[in-house]
Design brief:
heterodimer; A: about 190 residues; Arp2/3 complex 21 kDa subunit ARPC3; two-stranded antiparallel ribbon; about 75% helix; B: about 280 residues; 2 domains; globular; ECF_substrate-spec-like (chain A); UPF0397 (chain A); cell membrane (chain A)
């Protein structure tokens, strides 16, 4: 029984990765609002990523955004900007790590958990966009530090806002549609 | 909006189409990584030239990719301007000499040949892989692409995820369009005429149904795949997989040679930069 559950979970991870990547691609392409700084956008996709990762875990979250982001770079800029694509993948993994803690499928998520989730995502986005991505650009692409750190800080802010608003709304709405864990009692 | 999506595979009768997907994938990844690291102008120009020649042979028409190319060039220029604004004397720092055109190195805004040369290299780095990427996208069948990923060592589950993504992008796009039209018919304004907040609310009204229907889709597809025993064995075969032919080996040898030249240039230049100012 346990074994069977595991295999169906891994299939779900494969499918969630694929469909998630497709949705992230479409959202990045159509529902992105430019911030005025080149190559940084307010991406609705990051909010969706938060829900996807919270539902299907770190592997699906990380791979889905990695695939979706690189496909989007492919058709928008001609070739993927690898440092940012990889960083985005790491964000997906980090957001997926709190799957069990957040427990979206177990009924409405409490306010305290949402506050904790938001603090966590702001830290994750900070590490990713202010520390990892620009440093990668300086090391790998040899771009001027001032420019890439400005892009990094902008991305940190817009991505955190996207997860905080859209991600939180999605998680709340989705978890409300799930039956509360332990809400059914056996009649005596 | 439509014109952005015209990039896609069509069957053309060229030798590039007949190469196996794995060869093209290895070639693209290898060249884009070496081009990402190197700052040798001669090498970048060489690769750009080769990829333009290949692009010519691929029989892709300019008007098919014109829109995408314009966007890419616009972004490249924006980036170059931004690099100049934030670091106008970065070239001088890198190359260690200063041949001034305007101003002096003591001022913040100055113009030197070193800076122009550095930004020219950046421009090459932004665009040299574009013809290769377009060739890769437009001559590789998406189903074969997944098979190629598996062939070069990516686990078949991940390859299958990529296949699902490529297969469902058009569907998700259609869903997006249908939902968007339906919500606009109900009075949600999402065009540029509306205020930002109204637009944001309109966007939320579209992505909600889109995301919920996608989550349903995940359930349906994974159940269908489970019924067909996906993931039962350690390996799987691919209907679209192509065996390597003579031309594939030839192409791979050429790619290896180009990469070796790139690596050799690191030694010759004593670093990643080729410095003509010495």
């Amino acid at each position: 029984m346990n074994n069977k559950n595991q295999s169906s979970n891994s299939i779900r991870t494969v499918v969630a990765t694929g469909i998630g990547a497709a949705v992230i691609f479409v959202l990045m392409k159509f529902v992105a609002i430019p911030t005025g700084i080149p190559n940084t956008q307010f991406n609705v996709a990051e909010g969706f990523l938060a829900l996807l990762a919270a539902l299907y875990g770190p592997v699906a979250g990380g791979l889905a955004v990695f695939i979706g982001h690189s496909l989007n770079d492919f058709v928008t800029y001609g070739s993927p900007w690898w440092t940012w694509v990889i960083t985005d993948g790491l964000v997906g993994v980090a957001l997926g790590l709190i799957k069990n803690r957040l427990n979206v499928t177990g009924g409405a998520v409490k306010t305290m958990k949402l506050v904790w989730f938001n603090l966590y995502q702001i830290v994750v986005n900070f590490v990713a966009w202010v520390l990892i991505a620009p440093t990668g650009d300086v090391l790998v692409y040899h771009e001027p530090a001032a420019k890439v750190y400005l892009q990094g800080v902008t991305s940190w802010i817009v991505n955190s806002v996207s997860v905080a608003i859209i991600g939180t709304i999605l998680i709340v709405l989705y978890s409300r549609t799930r039956a509360q864990h332990g809400s059914l009692k056996k009649e005596k | 909006m439509n014109s952005q999506l015209l990039i896609g595979y069509t069957a053309r009768d060229t030798f590039l189409n007949r190469l196996s997907g794995s060869t093209k994938l290895i070639g693209f990844v290898a060249l884009s990584i070496i081009g990402m690291v190197t700052y040798d102008t001669r090498f970048l120009l060489g690769v750009l030239l080769i990829s333009l020649i290949l692009f010519h042979f691929s029989k892709i028409k300019y008007h098919e990719v014109a829109f995408v190319l314009q966007v890419i060039v616009a972004f490249a220029i924006l980036n170059l301007v931004m690099v100049y604004v934030f670091a106008p004397s970065y070239g001088i720092t890198i190359y260690g000499t200063h041949h001034m055109i305007l101003g002096s190195p003591d001022h913040y805004f100055n113009l030197s040949w070193e800076q122009l040369f550095y930004e020219f290299n950046l421009l090459l780095k932004y665009i040299f892989a574009v013809p290769l990427a377009l060739i890769f996208l437009m001559t590789t069948n998406p189903s074969e692409f997944a098979a190629s990923l598996n062939k070069i060592g990516v686990s078949y589950r991940i390859s299958y995820s990529v296949a699902i993504a490529l297969r469902y992008i058009p569907d998700v796009q259609n869903d997006y369009r249908t939902i968007s039209l339906a919500q606009q018919a109900r009075g949600y304004e999402i065009s540029r005429k509306a205020k930002l907040m109204t637009r944001a609310k309109g966007a939320v009204q579209i992505i909600m149904p889109l995301i919920l229907s996608s989550l349903d889709r995940i359930e349906i597809i994974s159940q269908a795949m489970e019924l067909r025993r996906f993931g039962h064995n350690k390996k799987r075969t691919w209907y679209m997989a192509q065996p390597f032919k003579r031309n594939d080996y030839l192409a791979l040898i050429i790619i290896v040679l180009i990469v070796l030249v790139g690596i050799a240039l690191f030694k010759v230049n004593g670093g990643r930069f080729w410095n003509p100012f010495k």
